[in-house]
């Protein structure tokens, strides 16, 4: 199976990871920290908002089962794209939103969905859109957090997880 990857920062990575795990065609997720300026940061360091990192989820997906465009559209359903450094009750630069890509060929798709989303608002959306510069996985404690702690904290409503499980990528179903 040929897979692709995209890195998405959608606020607290516990909920963002759990959300994307529900989507058919996503084969693996990993929480971590993206696009900061220190080497191998710890959660405690990132939490200080001095490292430049965003809590991010690496999403590995099967492009024959789910398209990048669909994943980006789903991402926009799970975030407040106008919020700067805040999602839900979580505040700080580590909770900023972003789309970080590793394959330049993905950029036209990202740009198109970004433009679709921007058209819904009269002011600029606050989602970073840039190449992935670096990614460091979070400690095991933060991986699959909501699977291990079903009643754990999450900024996303549980109904969003149901929505993700039921969502269909109609572009690939034709």
H/I helix tally: 7
What helical percentage do the residues reach? Answer: 25-40%
Kindly report how far apart the N and C termini lie.
21 Å
As a percent range, the share of strand residues is: 15-25%
SS content category: alpha+beta
Largest sheet: 6 strands, mixed
Number of strands: 8
Radius of gyration: 15 Å
Q: What do we call the CATH homologous superfamily? A: Peptide methionine sulphoxide reductase MsrA
* Overall spatial form: globular
CATH architecture: 2-Layer Sandwich
- Give the CATH level 1 class: Alpha Beta
pLDDT under 50 segments (min length 5)?
none
> Into how many domains do the coordinates divide?
1
Order of helices and strands: EHEHEHEEEHEEHHH
Average pLDDT, rounded to a whole number, is 96
Give structural notes.
It is a single chain. With 174 residues, the protein is of the alpha+beta class. The protein has one domain (4-173): Peptide methionine sulphoxide reductase MsrA (Peptide Methionine Sulfoxide Reductase, Chain A), CATH 3.30.1060.10. The protein is built from seven helices and eight strands. It has a six-stranded mixed beta sheet with strand order 7-6-1-3-2-8, with helices on one face. Strand 6, helix 4 and strand 7 form a beta-alpha-beta unit. The chain is globular. The mean pLDDT is 96.
Could you write a compact summary of the structure shown?
It is built from 7 helices and 8 strands.
Give a topology summary.
Elements: E1 4-10, H1 13-21, E2 26-34, H2 43-47, E3 54-61, H3 68-77, E4 86-87, E5 90-91, E6 97-101, H4 107-118, E7 127-131, E8 135-137, H5 145-148, H6 158-166, H7 170-173
Parallel strand pairs: 6-7
Antiparallel strand pairs: 1-3, 1-6, 2-3, 2-8, 4-5
